[in-house]
Each structure stands twice: as structure tokens, then as C-alpha cells.
Amino acid sequence: MTGVIADDVFDAEADEIIRGCLDLTAVRSFFLYAGAGSGKTRSLVQAVRDLCRRQGRQLTLTGQKVAVITYTNAACDEILQRLEFDPRVDVSTIHAFAWSLIRGYDADIRRWLDANLLAEIAELEDKQARGRASKASVERAQSIESKTRRRQGLPAITRFVYSPTGDNRTRDSLNHAEVIAMTAEFLTSKPGLRRLLVARYPVLLIDESQDTARRLMDALLGVQVAFPTQFCLGLFGDTMQRIYADGKVGLAEAIPEAWARPRKAMNHRCPKRVITLINKIRAEADGQAQRPRSNAQEGTVRLFLSPEAVPSKSALEASAAARMAELTGDEAWLPGRDGVKTLALEHLMSARRFGFERFFGPLYRYEPMRTGLLGGNGSGLGFFTRELLPLANALVVGDRFAIASAIRRSSPLLDRQRLATAGQQQQAELARAKAACDGLRALLVAAEPPSLRALLRHVAETNLFVIPDVLQPFVPDVPADGADAEDDDASTEGGAWRRALDAPFSEIERYDRYVRGVSQFDTHQGVKGREFDRVMVVISDDEAGGFLFSYGKLIGTKAKTRTDIENETAGNDTSIDRTRRLFYVTCSRAEKSLAIVYYSDNPGLARANLIERGWFTDGEIEVMPA
Ligand SMILES: Nc1ncnc2c1ncn2[C@@H]1O[C@H](COP(=O)(O)OP(=O)(O)OP(=O)(O)O)[C@@H](O)[C@H]1O
To answer: From CA 374, how far away is CA 364, in angstroms rounded?
Structure first.
């Protein structure tokens, strides 16, 4: 057996153990926790395929299915494809899965919502009674009012819906958090629902289970204890990659003795140098070390260290990339080649670097829009990305077929019924559509790039597309409510949109690519489970401005706060632990080479500490600007 083949089966015992667990006549639950790139997702897919091959007939006859839960829709699609859309397997995100269990239990949902809203209102009222008059108290009053209204409307709702995209914000719709909390509670308190789950899905496999909402995980562990041989819970994950606050702390310790615990020790993804680095990062947490494949390349790692204040971070990052090209001989590092995945600490940093901050920034700062904004969902966003953008692109290149298809899809001007009833006027209607497109094209190719507001007005004037409610206030020249921008509040939806509409239209395409995950940018958190040839990790505590993560504390240039020390003493998760895990996740995405651009509050001390801890050698740290 050659080394490479031996590597492929190095951890084969883990897959054998899982195979033994997945016997429908007497299942056994298991917990496969192993480091980055060890092939957990691969094992999951292989295990399901193998089960379907062996006992698929039984599944078909009993109408039972294997359930697979993944963290993102993208991961769902990937696994579905790898399983060739096998109808005996249901692959979904945790939210969709939870909803599939509780949908239709409308009376129970209503009761739960009623009690939950009542508790939330009581809590808000309590805060209101104790707090002073302030902006927060005004918001609390609004919140109390809207929750009270929602509660009063509950009896009239006959069927609740769940809207994963957020486009649907009607009274009968439930949000993500509610669906998870309800499912956890129903699974704990309703024996009927437990039986239903076990009868429908004798096997439930969860990828990235370190980040599964803890209440739901507790509920599922409860079901497993009640049905140990009828219900197999298979958990795949890595405690070192828990990066969302919702995941269950101490999951490993909560796993019953009777479960199988297969292990994997080889990293199939990263080059040797990256594996040594991630082993070091991990050493101070749980000491689990991985080994590389025998055919793994050496790989290159560099830390570009710079003070926080530099004239241009983009220029510095471009020169770091050029230096990587020189060091590795890999020209795909060169700026402009699109060969590098740049991972910023948070979305605004990506927006700044990729060039869509004027549009994104104001909307992102308006908290209630965040989830929708990052998923590209919502009618206002859809107007720009799904309606205007395809038409604009087609107009600029003069693609007549694409122009016609973009207009036909949703423009009221070419609405079939309207055209049919237009009779003699049909020609005139078509001429209007053409004039509207010509006008739009003229705006798009003008020397001065058009703002979103200018395009919005053109569309409204020409009736090219329907203007969604949320954008209506910005159509007239003077804001409808008479408010001028000065006293307009950025912390309202209207205020956020008003600012975002100043952005040039060119930002929409970049925003759209970013949220569809097809740009060269992402965040440290957003790339779980994925892999890229060349990775550039950009770190700047200042620019990220968050309190959840602190590279300064991890690297030791910044002192721990009292809260950190208290948390540490009490054995709680600290910002250092969280940052270490994040750093582990980002570095372990690299398949060939890894650059870390670190803007530090104290580059000298950072350098000394990193060398002393053995994370980087002296020669691997380059001080920037050179
Ligand atoms: N036994 C194997 N033989 C060959 N290649 C493998 C093997 N196991 C995994 N790989 C490859 O290694 C890479 C990482 O695998 P996978 O994504 O399944 O790991 P993971 O443990 O889920 O990673 P992470 O926790 O970092 O998301 C993939 O490209 C996969 O195809």
C-alpha cells in the first residue's frame, strides 16, 4: 500500500465504528469530534451512503428517513448533491428541521407564544418601571406596544408560518429563535412529538454540532436517552470550532457513557506548516494534535505585522499578497487575480475592502435588518439585487435577450394581462417599456455614476418595476414625512435606507456577490466547514470594534479585564477562548498557503510573544509597512 492510500484509510476505524452504530435493527448513538480537515463531513456523507446501500430498502418500506442537519443552506446543498438527492435522506438546516417537526401544532404554538410574549412584556415593563426616560425607554415602549398587539392578534391566527428568508413579515410568521425555543420545549414536554421524531427519523446526524443551539441539543439528548436503541443521534463536530454563543458549552462531558466515540487524527486539508501552527494554537486549549498526510506539502505561513494606524490598509494588504506571491512562487496570490480568500473579522471590514460600505454600512448598523441583510433577503434588497441588477447588467452590455427576460419576469409594463387588455395600445405600452430602459441605460453609463436614489426615482417614474413599501418614502424629491436628513434617525429602518440610497449603484453588485458567498471576501465566522487554496486572515481589533473577540488579549498585548479574570476563575468561556477558537477556524481553512495580516496595538510585544509561544519563527514575521 502506498503512503497516500494508507493516508486515505488512516482513520478508517472511525468510519467502521460509525457503520456499526448505523444498524437500523439496533442503533447506537455516537460522537465524532475531531480537528479541522479531518474529514468529518466526508465521514457523514459516507456513513449515510453506506446505510442507504445496506438498509435503504427497509427505509423505503417503513417510510422512515435519515435526517441530516447542517449549519448553512450552502452546506445543505453540498451534502444533498454528494448524496445525489437520495429521497430516503432529509437534509436541512436546524431551523428548517425544527419547523418540519412542529408545523401544524397551531394550538400549542399559540399557547407557547402567548406565554412567551407575556413573559417578555412583563420583563420589559419591569425594566421600564426602573429605568429613566431615554432613547432606550422609548424603544422599550414601542416594543411593549408591538408585543401586546401581537399577543392580542394570536387568537385570530389559524395557521402559523415560518419565514426563513425574512421576506415574509406577516403577523402569523414565527422567527428563527421562536422556532428553536418552541421545538426544544415541545420535544421535552410532549411525548407524542418525541415518538413522532423517532418513528420518522431513526437516525439523526448533525454536522457542526458544536454550534447547535444548546436548548435544542439538550432536548435531542433527552430523546436519545428515552429511546437508546430506536433513535441514533450522531454528532459530528469539533469543540475547538465552536464560534457561536448559542452552542452548548461542555457538550463532550454531557455525552452518555454508552455512546461510541470514534476518533480521527489526520488532517487531510492543510499543508504541514499550517498543521503545526493550528496544533500550537490548540495546544493551550485541549492539546489535541493532528498529523499531516504523508503527501502533504510543506506550505507557507507568514504573519504581516503592522501598527493599527496606517495610511491605507488596502494598500498594505495588497503588498502582503504580492509578497506571498514572491515567497510561494504562486502567482494566484497577486492582487487582482481573485485567487485569495480574504477573511475579515466582521462584515463591515469586508464591505470596506470589497467596496460596498456606503450601501451596506447604514443598513448593517440598523440591528433588526442584519440577518436579512446578510442573507440578501427582504423586499427592499430584492428590488435592487433581484430586479434592477439583472436588468442593469443586461442593458449595459446590450444583451437583448437578458433585457427582455429581466423585464418580463416582474415589470408591470410587460405584464401579460395588461398587454392583453391594451388592444390598440399594445404598441404604445411596448414603446413605454423601451423608453424606460433607454432612460435607465443612459443613467447607468453616465460619466457620473448614478446613486441608488436616482435609479429608484427613474424606476418609479417610468413604472419599470413595482416599488416595495419600504422604499416608497424615498421616491418623492422631498421626503414624504417632511423630515429632513438632519433630524432623521439612523437607528430607524427609514433612516438606514435614506443613508444607504446615497451609495452608487455599482455597490449593489459587490454586495450581492458578497452575500451569495461568491466574492473573495468573507468573515472569520462565515467560513466554517469550507476550504480555500490561499487564505489571508485580516485581524484588527480596533476596526472590528467588538467586545466578543480580542486578538490583543489572545496574543498578550492587552491586559485581561476583571470580567475575563472572573470568568477564567469560574471556568467560564472568556474572550481569549473565543478568539483562539476563531483563529483556529480561520487558519485551518488554508489548503496551500496562509497569510495573516495583523494590525496590532503593540506590534513589538506581539512579535516577541508569538515567537516565544512558538506560533511563528522570527523569519516568518514581516513588519509592515516595510
Ligand atoms: N480519508 C480521506 N482521504 C482523502 N481525502 C480526505 C479524507 N478525508 C477528508 N478528505 C479531504 O479533506 C478535506 C477536509 O474534509 P472535510 O471537509 O470532510 O473535513 P472536516 O473535518 O469536516 O473539516 P472542518 O472541521 O475543518 O470543517 C476535504 O477536501 C476532503 O475531501
So the answer is: 9
